[in-house]
Amino acid sequence: MPKLSSRCLLTVLTVIALIFSAFFMFYNIKGAWGYALSLRGQRLLSLVVVAYAIAVSTVLFQTITHNRILTPAIMGFDRLYQLIQTVIVFAAGTFHLGWFNDTSGFFIETALLTVFAVNLFQWLFSGTGRSLHLVLLTGIVFGVLFGSLNSLLNRMMDPNDSVILTDKYFANFNNYNGNVLIAAIVIIAVVSVFGWRLRHNFDVLALGRDMAINLGIDYRRSVRQILFLVTVLVSVSTALVGPVTFFGLLVANLAYLLCRSIQHRIILPVAVLLAVIFLVGGQFMLEYVFRFNVPLSIIIEFVGGIVFILLLLKGKMR
């Protein structure tokens, strides 16, 4: 199948994203238009923010790891998010789960996830013999540790609390908090400006460590800066809607497949547009066309899991 030019591809994806956004905003509105548009506008904005954060963080994480089947979830963010929720319920009961929907809960949760990752990266990169591979392995170990602690606390708490808590372990794109949406946008905008200043390093880092160093890039410093950028984006999206494992993998690899170019000035916007199409279009189809009560995150994770298996099989066949 012939590939579209980069400009044509971006135009087509932008038009599709706008069409789904328009349907999401205006389809089948009954009653007070002002209230309906305000509510749907906030939901649309939250979906776009989450789509942007997940797509950009995954593409940049794969750039510095040089591996297209890895996502930031390997660093244990989702496990830490679940552990935070479990500790609160274990200590104070399910009544306090609503605390996470408050603004203070969002900021504390984002801060905990960010502090954990930044301290981990700072410690691991402080030694001369430590590398990115050690960071990834340590992230896997911490993920297993957090998962084990989470399972232990779940077995010790009231079974009814454990059942209620299980719903918090999965992403819910309907359960966003409008009070923290502006704060999330501001945080993402600030780190995006920071990332924009690093944009010239992305393509060089994708060539590999040795090539990047030979081309004059301060490799360790650049990798740490991008990891910080990825950490903040993942922390904000996780605190906003919950942990998402395979969605970034799905949109990033589809962007690689569709693009003629491997340049990040093309890959990043294509991945973001695909993420917006999947989230906004998927939510519209489920909610207004098919009228299913199935959470979109379950379908996305199912499809993303299949893509992950196909990528593993493709790599093994090579």
UniProtKB/TrEMBL annotation:
The keyword DNA-binding does not apply. It is found in: Cell membrane. It is a multi-pass membrane protein. SUPFAM superfamilies: ABC transporter involved in vitamin B12 uptake, BtuC. The keyword Iron does not apply. Belongs to the binding-protein-dependent transport system permease family. FecCD subfamily. This is Transport system permease.
